[in-house]
From TrEMBL, chain A:
Coiled-coil intervals: none
Species for this entry: Vreelandella subterranea
Family per similarity comment: Belongs to the binding-protein-dependent transport system permease family. UgpAE subfamily.
Protein's name according to its UniProt entry: sn-glycerol-3-phosphate transport system permease protein UgpA
CDD domains for the chain: TM_PBP2
Transmembrane segment boundaries: 12-31, 72-94, 106-129, 157-179, 203-228, 267-288
Example of a GO biological process term: transmembrane transport
Assembly and oligomerization: The complex is composed of two ATP-binding proteins (UgpC), two transmembrane proteins (UgpA and UgpE) and a solute-binding protein (UgpB).
Localization of this protein: Cell inner membrane; Cell membrane
ABC transmembrane type-1 domain residues: 72-284
GO cellular component, one term: plasma membrane
Automatic annotation (TrEMBL), chain B:
Name of the protein this chain belongs to: sn-glycerol-3-phosphate transport system permease protein UgpE
InterPro entries assigned to the protein according to its UniProt record, in alphabetical order: MetI-like, MetI-like_sf
Key words, A-Z: Cell inner membrane, Cell membrane, Membrane, Transmembrane, Transmembrane helix, Transport
ABC transmembrane type-1 domain segment(s): 78-267
Membrane-traversing stretches: 12-33, 82-106, 113-131, 143-163, 192-213, 246-267
Length: 294, 280
């Protein structure tokens, strides 16, 4: 890795400059991560009096545990749902805004601000709209004959958290799609227009393929978002219920560790999550360097 | 635009207006709910137009909060959120600037090692290592303090990388000229590098302030004392009551959303810059 051609001499100064960052990283990142690894190999008895070394037993148990397998599939559905909804809405809005000349910045301003809303708050807002007794949407759904109740119905609850998570993420995806579209050379689109391609044809044959690096990047970012940044949405609304229908992995780590006090299992789940984050980060970095291209 | 198609334009505006309406809808409902009388919300369906009890709901929330939910006044919670967000933001910027400076402008042993050490933090979100981190903070007796709320969150690989990238684009001649004139490293950092980085710092400031303000899981675990309740956490407490007082919850929600939304609206250019650059 490069530095400047010319650098400052100094034996202690660089270490002193790095010290705050490194000390905090060691104390609050590396040490706890090591602890999680270590605890994932131990088991505590019910009273917390004795810990025994059990090797990979905690991991083996996880994969025999129905609720963990359920959590894996719930997380997959949630991540795919959130990514699909937020990205397709954002793509539609971005391609429409990109047509505009005078009103472009107004619409952009009106669409980007939900990024600032905390996930937990987004959850509460949607929870309120869908509240079975006073919410406005269940009232309207009832008129078409659907009884909405996210307190009993797992699929209703899942739909609710996906909506809340996607709503918050649309603004992010929108900005990146818009930036991606603006970097597509106008000449390509004009050439296609002269050849008689309609706006829709131009979108699918020129714009969309050229956006594929952005699309791929956003897919990874959205999956990471749905898996790790949505704790607040789940905790403030469904708390993993009903009947574990929205118990995503990050929520389960917390619930098993702090509420269930099953430290060994929770640590093993932490380690599994770290493996997932590392894998996603590697994918992101490898492919962003190379870029999907046509 | 390539050609003039009035119908397509009309259609595009319709799509966008529906889009904006959907995006605004939850917040509009929150504003409506926060202006109703308490019993109005229990009667069944929510009205679609703002009511007339806005001022008293907001004043009540601002001054006294909801004591039955162990949730203090919004003024205190907003202040706590602000202190936490500012501490996280300033801390992150400060230590990232210093470490990026060390990595770019010095050659020393273990430089690569430190670089990777910082990089690893990118892969360990707090949600993932939550219990051991909690134990560390508890052992350092930092529970229920602003230090415990902010310090564990201020290590930042993203900011360090961004500043490293930026420092690499600063012309070599700057350093040469500074050294010829006899400036030491700290003087160079303070008088040349910092003024050049102002836009980058501001852009990151916006992103990190929002990140700090919206922290949820961490304050939830670290603070049990109501004096340290942040606004996002306070709202969750109010909603988990048996019969939430929705008019007050929504007033608090509007107040919680306002500061970061205003930051985005007034610093949109910096926000977009920060967002697109931190994700490179």
């Amino acid at each position: 890795m490069q530095t400047k051609r010319m650098t400052f001499p100094g034996r202690w100064l660089p270490f002193a400059l790095l010290a705050p960052q490194v000390v905090i990283t060691l104390i609050f990142f590396i040490w706890p991560a090591g602890q999680a690894l270590y605890q994932s190999l131990l088991r505590e008895d019910a009273f917390g009096l004795k810990t025994t070394f059990v090797g990979l037993e905690n991991f083996a148990r996880l994969f025999r545990d129905g609720s963990y397998l359920n959590s894996l599939s719930v997380t997959a559905i949630f991540a795919v749902g959130t990514t699909l909804v937020s990205m397709s809405v954002a793509l539609l809005l971005a391609s429409t805004v990109n047509r505009m000349l005078r009103s472009r910045s107004t619409y952009t301003t009106l669409l980007v601000w939900p990024y600032a809303i905390a996930p937990a708050l987004a959850g509460v807002l949607w929870w309120f709209i869908f509240n079975p007794s006073i919410g406005i949407v269940p009232y309207m759904l009832e008129m078409v004959g659907y009884q909405w109740n996210h307190r009993n119905s797992g699929s209703d609850a899942m739909l609710l958290v996906i909506l809340a998570a996607a709503w918050k993420q649309v603004s992010y995806n929108f900005l990146f799609f818009l930036a991606g579209m603006q970097s597509i050379p106008q000449s390509l689109i004009e050439a296609a227009a002269i050849d008689g391609a309609s706006p829709i044809k131009r979108f699918w044959t020129i714009v969309f393929p050229l956006l594929s690096p952005t699309t791929f990047f956003l897919m990874v970012v959205n999956v990471v978002y749905a898996m790790f940044d949505t704790f607040g949405i789940i905790h403030a609304t469904t708390e993993g219920g009903p009947a574990q229908a929205t118990n995503i992995l990050v929520y389960k780590v917390y619930a098993d560790g702090f509420i269930g006090l099953n430290l060994g299992s929770s640590a093993a789940q932490s380690v599994m999550l770290m493996v997932i984050v590392v894998a996603l980060t590697v994918i992101q970095f490898r492919f962003i360097e190379r870029r999907v291209n046509y | 635009m390539v050609e003039n198609r009035p119908w397509a334009n009309g259609f595009a505006h319709t799509v966008l207006i529906i889009g904006v309406a959907l995006v605004v809808f939850p917040v509009y409902i929150a504003i409506v709910a926060s202006t109703q009388a308490p019993d109005e919300l229990l009667r069944g369906t929510l009205p679609l137009l703002p009511g007339s009890h806005g001022i008293e709901n907001y004043t009540q929330m601002w001054q006294s909060g909801v004591s039955s939910a162990n949730s203090p006044s919004a003024a205190l919670m907003l202040w706590n959120s602000f202190v936490m967000a500012m501490a996280i933001t300033i801390g992150k910027l400060f230590i990232s600037l210093l470490s990026a400076f060390a990595i770019v402008y010095f050659r020393f042993r273990f430089r690569m090692f430190f670089f990777w050490l910082i990089f690893v933090t990118l892969m360990l979100p707090v949600e993932v290592r939550i219990i051991p981190t909690y134990q560390v903070v508890a052992d350092l007796s930092m529970l229920n303090s602003f230090a415990g709320l902010s310090i564990p969150l201020i290590a930042s690989a993203t900011a360090t990388f961004l500043f490293r990238q930026f420092f690499m684009t600063v012309p070599e001649e700057m350093l040469e000229a500074a050294r010829v004139d006899g400036a030491g490293p700290l003087k160079f950092f303070k008088d040349i590098l910092m003024p050049l980085s102002v836009t980058n710092i501001a852009a990151l400031f916006v992103i990190m302030f929002i990140y700090g303000w919206n922290q949820y899981l961490w304050p939830l675990l670290i603070t049990t004392d109501p004096d340290y309740t942040t606004i996002v956490m306070g709202i969750q407490r109010m909603t988990s009551e048996e019969n939430p007082q929705w008019h007050l919850v929504m007033a608090a929600a509007v107040m919680a959303a306002l500061p970061p939304v205003l930051v985005i609206l007034f610093m949109q250019r910096l926000f977009v810059k920060g967002l697109t650059e931190t994700e490179k």
